[in-house]
Amino acid sequence: PVDRLPEIQEARLKLPVLAEEQVIMEAVRENPCVVICGETGSGKTTQVPQFLYEAGYASGSGIIGITEPRRVAAVSMSHRVAKEMNLSTRVVSYQIRYEGNVTDDTKIKFMTDGVLLKEIQKDFLLQRYSVIIIDEAHERSVYTDILIGLLSRIVPLRNKKGIPMKLLVMSATLRVEDFTDNQKLFRTPPPVIKVDARQFPVTVHFNKRTPLEDFTGEAFQKTCKIHRMLPPGGILVFLTGQAEVHSLCRRLRKCNTKLKPPSFMHVYLCLQSLPRIDLDNYSALPVDEGDEDREAGIGDEEDEASDLDIGDDPSNAEVKADPSIPLYVLPLYSLLAPEQQAKVFRPPPPGTRLCVVATNVAETSLTIPGIKYVVDCGRVKKRFYDRVTGVSSFKITWTSQASANQRAGRAGRTEPGHCYRLYSSAVFGDFSLFSEAEITRRPVEDLVLQMKDLNIDKVVNFPFPTSPSAEALVAAEQLLVSLGALKEPPQTGRIKELKRAKLSCPITPLGRAMASFPVAPRYAKMLALGKQQDCLQYVIALVAAMTVREIFEDLDRPAGTEDESSKLTQRRARLTQMRRLWAGQGASLLLGDLMVMLGAVGACEFAGCTPKFCEDNGLRYKAMVEIRRLRGQLTNAVNAVCPEVAVFVDPKMTPPTEHQVVCLRQIVLTGLGDHLARRVQVEDVLDPKWKNGYKTALMDDPVFIHPTSALFKTLPEFVVYQEIMETAKMYMRGVSAVEAE
Ligand code: ADP
Ligand code: MG
C-alpha cells in the first residue's frame, strides 16, 4: 500500500491517466506487450509506474524499470515519483550514464535507454525486471528503437522460460503504427490504450510573414507583447538551442530591470483585476486549424498600431495585463543543472509572470504547469550527417507538423490557451507531418557493434521499428571490419556486392573489447591499442575529449553590445594564445588539434576543473566536467578489460614525451585511417577553389583546415581528421598530421 500525502492524491486524481488505471492494468495482465499513448501531461510517466507498483509488479524479486531518452527526464521523474509515493529515493531511484542512486531496495528504477541497453549486454533476459516501460517512444531515439526491437524478442523468451515479463511502450503523439503494424516486430499487434487528455482548446495564431533570420528577435518582440497586453498566464517560448535560450533570457530580464518591483498593494490590485472578459471566447479552433492573425491583435508584427487591436475591442478594455509586473524568466534545456531545471515546476514568485524559454525538452518530456501562451519559432536544431561523405553539420530546420502541434498543446494544459507561431500557415503547410526517426539520420557503426556483441549477427534482419538504410548498415560493417572489430567476410567474386548487402560478419575478440567501451568504435579501437608505450592515460584523455566534442567555447558568436564585443575580442586572443601553448613544441606540434585538446584537458584538470579556469581560458565548463567523468569511466572500463595495465586518472598528467607523441599519432591513425586527407599540390591547383584544399577519399570538393587549427600554418601534406563539419566551408576538425611513407 502506498501512503500518499492528501495534496498529492488530490493532484493525481485530476490526471487523465488515472481514469484508465483499470483498463491499463487489465491489458497488462492479459498481454505481454501493451502500448499506451496519450497527450503530454496526461500522467503516463509519473503514474503508470505507480499503477504497476500497486498491482504488485515489484513485490517479488523483479523490479519495475522505466527508460527515458533524456537524462533530465530520468532524474526528475524519479524524484517526482518518489515524492508522490512518499517513498525514499532508495526505493524509487534513477541511473544515468555517470551517476545514480539505485540501491538493493530499489523497486522502481528510472534510467536512460543507453543504460538498459548496457544491462541487456550483461543479462540478455533482464531477469532483474518484472516490467520494462519504454517511455517517450515517439521521440524515436536510436536506443529506444533498438530496445523495442530487442524487447520484442526478450519478452517471449522470458515467458517461454517461465519467468514472465511485461513490456509497456508509452508514447505521446499518435503515430504508433511503426510499433503496432510491424509484423517483424510484434507478430500479434499489441493493444493500444489511448488516454484522453483533458486538453483545453488552444487558439493558434500564425504570423503573416515568416522571419527568415532573426527568429530570436521575433520571439523577443512577441513575448514582450504578450506580457504587455494579455491577461495573466505563463509564457513558454520554444527556441532551438542553449545559446539562443540564454540570449533571449538575458534580453527579457533586461527589460524587467526597467520596471519597478511590484508592491504588495500592486499585486493585490492585479489579482482584483483578473480578466473578466474571456480572451478565449474566440472560436476555439483545433490546434492545427488556426486562422492567420485573426483572433488576437498581437498576431501581426507589421506595426505597433496593430497591437492596439485588442484595445479597440471594448470588451477587451480591462484585459490588459499590467506590464509593470516583472516577468519571471527561466531557461530550460537538457544540459541545465537539475536544480535550475526544477525551478520550472515551482510556482513563480507572487506578483510575477512565469516565462520559460526552452528548447525541445519542453515539447514532450517535461510538462510545465501554468502555461497559457506558447511562442513557437517553428524550428529545431539537428545534427545532420551525410551518409556518403560522413560530413556533419548542425542545421536549424523547420520542425514537423506533429511537433509544432505538440508545442501548441503545451498552452492548453490548465485552461484554454494561445499559441503564437512565428511563421505563416503556408510555411506550416510545408512542414513534414512527422519527424524522422533518429536512426535514419546518423551513422550506425556503434549500434552495429553493440548488436554484434549481443550476438545478433544479421543486423539487417533485426526487427527495427524503423530500419536504418541498407547503405548505412553496409557502411557500418565495412568500417567495423577495417577496424578489426568484425571478421572479414569471404570474398566471392562477382556476387560480392550482393553478399555485402546481407553482410553478417561475426565479431572478433578485439570487437568484444571495443564494445565494452562506451564510445564510438573508432575511439574504442584507440583505447584497445593504447596499452603500448605507456600511452594509455593520454589515449583515454584524448578519446574523452573527442567524444565530448565542442570543448572550446564558441567565440564566433555575434556580440550584442560594444562591451560584449570587446570582451569577446579579448577572449578570442586569450584562447588563441592558450591553443598555441597547448599545441606544444617540436614533435607534439604534429599531433595538431588533438595535442591542443590533450593540453586543454591536462591544464584544466591540473587547475582543478573549476568554472573560473574554463571561463578564463575559453573552455566550456560543462564539456570539461563531462570529459572528467568520461575519463574516470573509461579508465575503469580499460582496467576491467585489461587489469594488468592498472591505469589511473592522474590529475597532474605531464605532457607526452616525443616518443609517446609518435605512438599517439600511430594510435590515432588506426582509428581514423579512413579519414585521411591529402593536400592538393600547388602545381595541381587549376581551380582556385582548391587553394590550400585537401582531397579526401569520398568527396569531389576540397576540405580545409580551419584558421583556428594548430595546423593551419603548417598545412602538412597528409592529415587525418576527426570529422568534417560544414559551416562557412567544409572544414576538418580535430586534425593531426600523418607522415608520408
Ligand atoms: P506524461 O508522461 O503523460 O507527459 P507526466 O506524468 O510527466 O505526464 O506529468 C503529469 C503531471 O505531473 C503534469 O501535470 C506535470 O506538470 C506534473 N509533474 C511532473 N513532474 C513534476 C514535478 N517535478 N513537480 C511537480 N509536478 C510535476
Ligand atoms: Mg512523459
UniProtKB/TrEMBL annotation:
> Which EC number(s) does the record attach to this protein?
3.6.4.13
Domain (Helicase ATP-binding) spans 25-192
Enzyme class, top EC level, equals hydrolase
Provide the reaction this enzyme catalyses: ATP + H2O = ADP + phosphate + H(+)
The residues covered by the Helicase C-terminal domain are 211-455
State if Transport is listed as a keyword: no
Where would one find coiled-coil regions in this protein?
none
Q: Where is the composition biased (Acidic residues)?
A: 288-312
UniProt KW keywords: ATP-binding, Helicase, Hydrolase, Nucleotide-binding
Protein name per Swiss-Prot or TrEMBL = RNA helicase
Q: Which organism is it from?
A: Echeneis naucrates (Live sharksucker)
